[in-house]
Amino acid sequence: MSTSGFTDYAARFAESRSAIISLAVSLFFVLCAIFAPLIALTDPYDLTQLQLSDALKPTGSKRMLPGEEARATIRLEGGKATIQPVSPAGTRLSLTAEPCGANCMSVGVRPEGAKLANLQIRNLPASATVEGGKKHPIQPWWTVDNPEGNEVRITSSNPLPANATLLAIAKSLDQETDFVFRLGTDNFGRDMLSAILYGIRISVFVGLVAAGAAMVIGTGLGLLSAWRGGLTDAIIMRAVDFMLGLPALLVGLAILAILGNGVSKVVLAIVIVQWSYYARTARSFAISELGKEYVEAARCLRLSPTRIMLRHVLPNCMPQIIVLFTLNIAAAISLESSLSFLGVGLPLTRPSLGMLIASGYEFIFSHKYWISIYPGVVLLVMIVAMNLLGDRLRDLNNPRLDR
Amino acid sequence: MLSFVLQRLLQSVIVVLVLSIVLFVGVRLIGNPVDILISSEASEADRLAAITALGLDKPLWEQYLVFLVNAVQGDWGSSFVYKEPVVDILLQRLPASLELGLIAFVIAIGVSVPAGLYAGLRPQSLLGRSIMAFSLIGVSIPTFWQGMLLIVAFGIALPILPVGDRGQLATHFGITSSLWTLDGWSHVIMPAFSLALLKMSLLMRVTRAAVMEILRLDFVKFAYAKGVKSRRVVIGHILRNALVPLVTVTGIELGNLLAYGVITETVFSWPGLGKLLINSIKVLDRPMIVAQLTYTALLFIFINFIVDILQMVIDPRVKSVLRRRVA
């Protein structure tokens, strides 16, 4: 297509406002798909980042840091206390121990502002007590809930024994972080916003690759059929009729039932379903093009059949093929999500939009709508935009609507 | 006429045969049934005996012929899971699916033809545009998600309709169905609407396009010019001619109704064939899968066959072409 032809085409395309909007929306989704790892705040595939305490949180709730437990042994040696932390590495809480006068020792927690659930001192000698603490009915363990100033005092009627080892355990409350789950979380504690972004990535990828592969294969077979005619044509067209005679969803279901699930298998299933549309369209347009004079001229020049088909006939069939391609991307995305919903599509660890909706299905009955609603809205907008785009392109190609 | 029917019939039979070969070979690809049916502790002699008994030692084409002969006689083997003949289980589940499909079909036709007709006659009116917008959403919305939205809206937020199962059954005139009871209707209406939505939207668009096409034709203008009442033109001329593409699409969509039943039945826990198929795929119940897929494909091909015949009856042009060919 020449440049002026393209500008003309673009100008006519732009006459419809809905077409512009749907083009913008489609491009937006493609950008989302490409840049998902950069935009998404969390990586939904990184299972180590997920914490079950975040599961099923509604929209706008904050991520909670789970409470920590810090342990330290306190060794009393001749009136002096030495403290030895035994917490796992990376614990933010730490314990301190200082004498506070005769027969008294205070155990504190750093950092100052930490909110403690409780502080427990174990293995106290029988004579000692912890102020404000409760003793375990059997064990020599004292627990103080919400200790004031994050500090407890161990007091004793007798002098504290010269050689003893105590164990102090501090537990902090769950803490809010600044991270907000804008669209809530799913049942694994995944941030839905990130999961949706990655879901768009998978859905768009599957749609583009599957529809693209189907286009190449289908158009190729259609052109072959148109060029060769005879037996080749008959065989290919019977195969097309055969495929068109079966419902797409069932064919996809049957193929995946046989092959098992996975991204490549879903793509394969969609290609097997969709190639026939392209083959039929390409063949019918190619046959009408083959009767035209420019093809005759090319034949007189003794150009090779491959060259005539690919360089002369194919470009003239392309507008229709592209319309089909746009509509089929939407169909492919829709089919993939349906198959994933039925549990034969993509694996659970790398959810597409359909998979996200499916995983939210069981939770709608307990009023946790956000898991299915948001991915569904995204999926719907994506498919509507693609369909509108395809419709507009088709109208542009329809000579009857041409002025 | 007869030769056309016979020709189509022959084509259908060939399609069925090809399909059965594809399925037969495809299912063999899943794995060896011997591994599933015979316990791993069985001795080698027992294994061989079982393989001979099952006929798996024969060449593949011979196995296929045995399968075909049995299938034609109605023997599809026994389900691995239910331990019952597959045909019995399918027949148990069939009424639920038929019921759902039938109601959905009636809803789809009942809504789409008048709406499409209106949108075609008055494409610029507000209602006409709204109908088109509705159909665009209806075509694009994923069936399973739309079903979930219906459940959320009418089953949970406004709990006016029950979700899941068929409800109370009753038997009249030898037919056991949930359509005889009010409770049954309250169960069927939501899944049926959900199943109908996609077809409804598609048929609306087809009807609208056909009506707009026909409106431009000369015979409509003549009819108006002749002073025929507008109602008669719409019903007698426009609708009648719009029926031709409608029947074709309806036929294809009827088959799709069966396929999409799989999704709707899963979403609404409807105890029909679709849900059975999904469960069978999940547990790899091979005889069930084969029987179900073949049965649906058979039905689909059968419907296509009927549609072709119907189309000839409705469309006078097809008939005249055939007559000319005979003469």
Descriptive tags:
A: 403 residues; alpha+beta; MetI-like fold; 2 domains; 6-stranded antiparallel beta sheet; 10 helices; rod-shaped; B: 327 residues; two-stranded antiparallel sheet; 13 helices; 2 strands
Number of helices of chain A: 10
- SSE ordering of chain A: HHEEEEEEEEEEEEHHHHHHHH
Low-confidence stretches of chain A: none
Number of domains of chain A: 2
Q: Mind describing the biggest β-sheet of chain B?
A: 2 strands, antiparallel
Rounded mean pLDDT of chain A is: 82
Quaternary organization: heterodimer
* Strand percent estimate of chain A: 15-25%
- The average pLDDT score of chain B comes to 80
Rounded to an integer, what's the Rg of chain A over CA atoms?
34 Å
Task: Work out the number of β strands of chain B.
Answer: 2
Distance between the termini of chain B: 12 Å
Q: What coarse outline of chain B follows from CA principal-axis ratios?
A: globular
In order across it, which strands form the biggest sheet of chain A?
3-2-11-6-9-8
CATH topology of the largest domain in chain A: MetI-like fold
Given this structure, which CATH class of the largest domain in chain A is correct?
Mainly Alpha
CATH homologous superfamily annotation of the largest domain in chain A: MetI-like
Shape descriptor of chain A reads rod-shaped
Can you describe this structure?
The complex is a heterodimer of chains A (403) and B (327). By secondary structure, chain A is of the alpha+beta class. In chain A, 52% of the residues lie in helices and 18% in strands. Chain A has two domains: 3-59 and 182-396, MetI-like (MetI-like fold, Orthogonal Bundle), CATH 1.10.3720.10; 69-173, Immunoglobulin-like. In chain A, the strands form three sheets. Chain A has a six-stranded antiparallel beta sheet with strand order 3-2-11-6-9-8, with no helix packed on it. A four-stranded antiparallel beta sheet of chain A has the order 4-5-10-7, with no helix packed on it. Chain A has a two-stranded antiparallel sheet with strand order 1-12. In chain A, strand 8 and strand 9 (142-145) form a beta hairpin. The radius of gyration of chain A is 34 Å and the shape is rod-shaped. With 327 residues, chain B is mostly helical. Chain B has helices at residues 2-30, 33-37, 44-54, 60-72, 86-121, 126-140, 143-157, 182-215, 218-225, 230-267, 273-282, 286-314, 316-326; strands at residues 170-172, 175-177. In chain B, strand 1 and strand 2 form a beta hairpin. In chain B, helix 9 (218-225) crosses helix 10. The longest helix of chain B has 38 residues, at 230-267. Classes of the chains: A alpha+beta (403), B mainly alpha (327). The interface between A and B is large, with 37 and 42 residues.
